Amino acid sequence: MKAAIYPGSFDPVTYGHLDIIKRASKIFDELTVSVLNNKTKTPLFSVEERVKMLEEATKDMPNVVVDSFSGLLIDYAREKDIHVAIRGLRAFTDFEYELQIAQTNRKFSGGDLDTMFLTTSLEYAYLSSSTVKEFASFDGDISQCVPEFVAKLIYEKYRHLRQA
Ligand code: PNS
Q1: Residue 9: CB within 6 Å of ligand 1?
Q2: Which residue puts its alpha carbon closest to atom 22 of ligand 1?
Q3: Long-range contacts: 143-151, Cβ < 8 Å, 24+?
Q4: Angle (nearest 5°) at CA 22 between 145 and 16
Q5: How many whole angstroms separate alpha carbon 87 and alpha carbon 115?
Q6: Whose CA is nearest to atom 13 of ligand 1?
Q7: 102 lines ligand 1 (CB under 6 A)
Q8: Taking phi first (over 0 means left), then psi (-120 to 50 degrees means alpha), and beta for anything else, what does residue 10 get?
């Protein structure tokens, strides 16, 4: 069985991520989308909330599994016996950072974990979770960036934060 992991922060999932998930799920028999539990970042959504959003957004994709992980991707991949990581490339500016991580992962996994890049569809090339959050925090229209239920959750989150 051909399996791959699509790791990321997914804070929150965007149409850009979903485009990569859809395409990667057609290439692999099973795709595990895994949310990094990164203790050094302060995310807008908890890991549990991000996992739930991904589950809802991918519910019509039967070979997509949603999970979370802490620590190194190479250790997580080894535990799962998965040897391919998927990453999306939006622009040239992503490339240097992604290349470095991909090479580090390959080197320190002893060649066990390769990274496969999918170029983001052009209509989503501008999209990032950070810009979506910034836009939504000022009540900007993010309907073209994330599914409707995700947009609602983002606005709700900022409403709560403003009231706190
Ligand atoms: O969505 P992001 O934040 O760009 O995803 C980055 C991610 C989660 C793929 C990357 O930070 C990661 O794999 N982190 C886990 C720790 C690790 O293995 N780092 C790579 C070697 S430096």
Answers
A1: yes
A2: 101
A3: 144/15, 145/14, 145/15, 146/12, 146/13, 146/14, 146/15, 147/13, 147/15, 147/18, 147/56, 147/57, 149/53, 149/56, 150/12, 150/13, 150/14, 150/53, 150/57
A4: 25
A5: 7
A6: 73
A7: no
A8: left
pLDDT tens-place values along the chain, 164 residues long:
899 999 999 999 999 999 999 999 999 999 999 999 988 789 999 999 999 999 999 999 999 999 999 999 999 999 999 999 999 999 888 899 999 999 999 999 999 999 999 999 999 999 999 999 999 999 999 999 999 999 999 999 999 998 87
Q: Are 31 and 63 in contact (CB under 8 A)?
A: yes
pTM over 0.85: yes
Closest C-alpha residue for ligand 1 atom 17: 72
The candidate with the shortest Cα–Cα distance to 44, out of 122, 108, 132, is 132
Q: 45 with 53: CB under 8 angstroms?
A: yes
For residue 31, what are the β-bridge partners? 4, 64
Residue 142, amino acid: I
Active-site option among 50, 87, 90, 133 = 90
Per DSSP, 71 falls in state S
